[in-house]
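Thread: "does anyone have the structure for this chain?"

Original post by V.I.:
We have the sequence but no experimental structure in hand. Need at least a predicted one for the grant figures.
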Amino acid sequence: MPTYYVWKNKYAGMEVSQLRHLKDVEAELVRLKRMYADLALEHHALKDVLSRKL
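Reply from O.Q.:
Generated one for you, tokens below.
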């Protein structure tokens, strides 16, 4: 859990619109990381199936 000082250093001087944009970008990053993880698992599963057929 970040301390107050870490939070203050990260968000100091930012306006509300900038904070909203930062939160949106962070949420998008989480969504893309999950999507990548799902696709990587699917890719490995497909490679496994193909290797068994050959």
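V.I.: this helps a lot. Residues 14-53 form one domain.
O.Q.: and The radius of gyration is 19 Å.
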